[in-house]
Design a protein that fits this description.
CATH superfamily: Cytidine Deaminase, domain 2
Structural class: alpha+beta
Distance between the termini: 44 Å
Helix content: 25-40%
CATH class: Alpha Beta
CATH architecture: 3-Layer(aba) Sandwich
Largest sheet: 5 strands, mixed
Number of domains: 1
Order of helices and strands: HHEEHEHEEH
Bound molecules: zinc ion
Shape: globular
Number of strands: 5
CATH topology: Cytidine Deaminase, domain 2
C-alpha cells in the first residue's frame, strides 16, 4: 500500500468539510486509527489494506485492520478486529457509537455483509453510522446507518 501521510490526509479531509462535526476531535481520532491500522494490515494474499476506527459510547477509539492467513479461511476483517479490540478493553457490553472504515480505493468501499451483521450486533442503536473513506481525501465519505446497511435484519431479539 502506498504510504499515507495521515496528518496531511486529515487536514485535507477537514479543509473539504468531509469530517463533519468533529466533537472533541473524536472523528479525527477515528480516521487516524483507521488509516494507521490499514497501514499495519496483514494482507499478503489480497493486498487489500483495510482499516477501521471504532468510537464507543464511552468515547474511546479503537483501530482494526484485516488479518489474513495462508489457508484463506478464518480471515479477520478490519471491522471485526476493531470490535474485538473494543470488547477486550470495555467488556461484552461494549457498544458502537460510530464506525469509520478506510480503504485504499478511488471511491469509498462499503463493508461486507458479514461485517454489517457484526456492526449491527454491537451498535448502540439503528442510527449508528458507518462512514467509508477512500484513499483520496477530497472524495466525500459515504455514510450509512445500521438500518440502511442491513434493512429488516436478523438480530439478538429474534432468538429471545
Ligand atoms: Zn467485512
Amino acid at each position: 500500500m502506498r504510504y499515507i501521510d495521515v496528518p496531511k490526509y486529515i487536514s485535507i479531509v477537514k479543509k473539504w468539510g468531509h469530517l463533519g462535526a468533529d466533537i472533541n476531535g473524536l472523528r479525527s481520532q477515528q480516521l487516524e486509527a483507521a488509516i494507521a491500522a490499514a497501514q499495519n494490515a496483514y494482507c499478503p494474499y489480497s493486498k487489500f489494506h483495510v482499516g477501521a476506527g471504532l468510537l464507543t459510547v464511552f468515547a474511546n477509539v479503537y483501530g482494526g485492520c484485516n488479518v489474513e492467513n495462508v489457508m484463506y479461511n478464518g480471515m479477520s476483517h478490519a471491522e471485526l478486529t476493531a470490535i474485538t479490540s473494543a470488547i477486550v478493553h470495555e467488556g461484552s457490553d461494549m457498544r458502537i457509537m460510530q464506525m469509520v472504515v478506510w480503504t485504499p480505493t478511488p471511491e469509498p468501499c462499503p463493508s461486507c455483509g458479514g461485517c454489517r451483521q457484526l456492526i449491527r450486533e454491537h451498535a448502540a442503536s439503528d442510527e449508528v453510522i458507518v462512514w467509508a473513506f477512500c484513499q483520496d481525501p477530497t472524495v466525500p465519505p459515504t455514510g450509512m446507518n445500521v438500518k440502511e446497511l442491513l434493512p429488516k435484519s436478523f438480530g439478538p431479539d429474534n432468538i429471545k
